[in-house]
Design brief:
Helix 1 links the parallel strand 1 and strand 2. With 86 residues, this protein is α+β, with helices and mostly antiparallel strands. It has 3 helices and 4 strands; from the N terminus they run βαβαββα. It has helices at residues 13-29, 45-51, 72-82, and strands at 2-8, 34-40, 57-60, 63-67. A 4-stranded mixed beta sheet has the order 2-1-3-4, covered by helices on one side. The longest helix has 17 residues, at 13-29.
Length: 86
């Protein structure tokens, strides 16, 4: 199973749009073996300091997949390349 972390915050339109793009990519690929944990950066001062101006941020295995504007095509290509290699 591929595990990803989505750093977000409340009342963040870019975060909402990015989540839609990730979900669309997962749906298009019909991947059920991807677990995405959502983390609200406002719940932790250290996370807020690190990600304040970068959210949304999609992370896999400690590496940033994409941040800021989450793009369907980039997420789709990333997932297609990495799912099944875990």
């Amino acid at each position: 199973m591929l595990e990803m972390t989505y750093y977000t915050r409340k009342r963040c339109p870019l975060c909402d749009q990015g989540k839609e793009q990730v979900n669309l990519a997962l749906s298009e690929l019909r991947y059920n073996d991807v677990k995405m944990s959502e983390v609200d950066i406002d719940s932790d001062d250290a996370l807020q300091e690190e990600y304040m101006i970068r959210v949304p941020v999609l992370v896999h295995d400690g590496n940033v997949v994409q941040e800021g504007i989450i793009d369907f095509a980039q997420v789709y290509d990333y997932l297609k390349t990495h799912v099944g290699k875990q």
